[in-house]
């Protein structure tokens, strides 16, 4: 305990000293992709998709290679990112859907409860203007999950994740008000008949106003309006989550490069005549938005006063016409979205801050998205509230001797049969199928020797498995709805506070 208190004091002193000479705390921009695999950026090994701006972001900053999302699906990953809590403590642990797909049934997901302390509220209290622009997924505007009740002065984008399946929606939301877009009504889950599908049938899934362009426009406006006040801009873009939809000019850049066949919607989401080209184009389009944001920061003279970070909510998807194997989207790792295997949770993380973060570095520090609350607090030069993470700022800025290290990362995910996982040094323990069998055994992998999780070593390390059992008992806190409570009830006894 004394060591922890001493480390906390050192961290606070470090943060204060780092920013004492600045006129104001730095701006923070966090760009969040949707269903992007760890291998879909050039600097992480991608060979077929062009990402020049993200590659530049990494060249001018730091790239993390042992970085994880908090959980492998949309809404809970966002909740854990914003609240600094892991899957055993988070209020939202799965995609709890409300309403339906049509505009008339828009109902969003389970809302954040009243009184939630988010990174937005934390930074508001530190004098930041805050904005969330993109996909929210944590409650509609009429609920306690309203972004403006959860720490954001400004919101623009999709409140409901289901609406975000369409990149040409009828509307987005701006501070609780419907903002109409010039797009026709569209059912993006309408399947086409392969034998009879014509050009005009694929054209049905094209609109006039691309939601991504609207989001970036609002982001630029927000940045321009802040003057000398520090700002936090959370940009959870919806790319490359399906549906496969992108402007024709963007898709055209890739047509002819791949041997591809039309996708007719047989695995859900919009049909696409050129699915591989469209997927690649979507990622390159996201990359272009990163470039636009970087250029705006430069034009405003804020390069040395702005931290830009990039990550994704979970691994690449398995449906909607996406071919993760073709693009090597998860760098040969096992699993995809909804899996606690590495392919579902290992993510890119890039941070750039000229003058503070040395350029061209990579880090193998064991780190996770619920570290962002502590990291943002350190960047702002304020104490972090109670959370499950550690600040990554010392590692980012090259002060390794002051970087805190964790003994493990804990994952708990109630969907796809119920899963838990623990990353401890080179070791990765995972249990699957816990809803069907609460005594499901541990699988154990040495990720340094076996990054693809192919050789189960559980039988050779019984003591390590006992340590993992103790960690689950320590970290699991009972969920507030029965759908998310899938572990042995005895595990809940010791951790009710």
- The assigned structural class equals alpha/beta
Average the pLDDT over all residues and give the rounded result: 94
- Specify the overall morphology: globular
- End-to-end Cα distance, whole Å, is 19 Å
Strand order of the largest sheet: 9-8-7-6-10-1-11-12-2-13
Residue runs with pLDDT of under 50 for 5 or more positions: 1-17, 493-497
Strand content: 15-25%
Q: What portion of residues is helical?
A: 25-40%
Number of helices: 13
Q: C-alpha Rg, in Å?
A: 22 Å
Number of strands: 18
Please give the largest β-sheet.
Answer: 10 strands, mixed
Q: What are its keywords?
A:
single chain; 497 residues; alpha/beta; ten-stranded mixed sheet; four-stranded antiparallel sheet; 13 helices; 26% helix; globular; disordered N terminus; disordered C terminus
What does this entry look like structurally?
There is one protein chain. The protein is α/β, with parallel strands linked by helices and 497 residues long. Helix content is 26%, strand content 17%. It has helices at residues 2-19, 52-59, 74-83, 119-125, 199-203, 211-225, 248-252, 275-299, 324-327, 342-345, 372-380, 393-397, 462-475, and strands spanning 27-34, 62-64, 67-68, 97-99, 106-109, 129-135, 154-158, 171-174, 177-180, 231-240, 306-312, 349-352, 361-363, 367-368, 409-413, 419-424, 427-431, 443-446. A hairpin with a 2-residue loop joins β8 (171-174) and β9.
